[in-house]
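BUG: 3D viewer hangs when loading the predicted structure for this chain

Environment: internal workstation, default settings.
Expected: structure renders.
Actual: progress bar stalls at 90%.

Input used:
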Amino acid sequence: MLRHGEIMMIHHLKEEGLSISEIARRMGLDRKTVRKYLQRGLEPPVYGPRPPRKSVLDPYQDFIRARLQAYPALTATRLMREIRDLGYQGSYTTVKRFVCQVRPPDQTGYEHRFETPAGKQAQVDFAQFKVQFTREPTRMRIVWLFSLVLGFSRLLFCRFVLRQDLATVVRCHLAAFGELGGVPRQILYDRMKTAVIGEQDQHIIYNQRLLDLARHFGFTPRACAAYRAKTKGKVERPYRYVRQDFFLGREFRDLEDLNAQLTCWLAEVANVRTHGTTGRIVNEAFAEEQPALLPLPETPYRTVLRLERRVSRDGMVSVDGNEYSVPDTTRRRIVEVQVTAQEVLILEDGRLVAVHPVLEGRGRRRIAEGHRRFPPPGNAKISRQGGHQIVTLPGQQVCRRDLEIYDRVATRLASSGRST
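Structure tokens produced before the viewer hung:
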């Protein structure tokens, strides 16, 4: 059997005018061989199959096949150790190559898309983002994106928050339900601590306040299976979309500005697009789904957490890392604090003395209007020149007021007292 190059040389010499005898002499071939390849033309040679070569693995192949048939996930390393004990002396590469050839194919098949009818299910989760607000250019903050996605229409509700505590989770639910104008019958959660406390006897133990919220609005909480993030893929997939289409390449002054821009993006981009999976415009699909949602309850959600707190020397009460003012007329050092999803209520001897909206994050202060009629004491945490300031954030300037103003106020009060 001649190689292809030798056949080419025979034809080349023939084209130069050499005889068959001369070609056979030059190439050391028989004249019959030269004549045969000239008659065949330039067809490439056809080689028969090579006889299989013996391998040091041959005595162990049936053993490996049987083990993989019984346990398809066995690794080549494990099988190498087992046949070593049986006398195998060859290399690991030989074993690995053979295992790749004979391992049974995976029988799991393709993922099945899980769709729900209108109004039945929503999915909730958090994702972490890092942001540098222009108001605090030297500080990198971690914020959390709360997302609720309706399973049928894929309508997306999002809000950035500074914490994942239960009060924040409840406020985000209330905002989402208000935006939707209704409540899905079932909400699927990851096993986050604010939703799932644990598991006992194969039963999920949910947070009691989450169950209170669910009873009030009529939905059923459901925890996804452990280590099965694909069961809540509808809410996890949009995080990359939010990050790439909205978050990257923008500047945000503070958390309020971040959420304001996010709200515009949801209304103008995310919820008016044609969804890649459903093939429908999100808002149009939501218009079909919204009537199937549960109606909002007539009574507001008012679950209250009762606490006792000490009033500081500068007339502030600390709740969840933030400070809220009490009026100057408050005399008790220990007051009752009632925390709802949206408000902080402060009571003295059962009498309501202050109502504040819940502050996001930590380290913030709120002094309600009318609470500071007199200057603070000399050892107070706030400045004696500090004027009325509703909310102060780290790095903000506090309004200043001359102490002469208080002298004039005191003189006027004293004169009015004498006149009466």
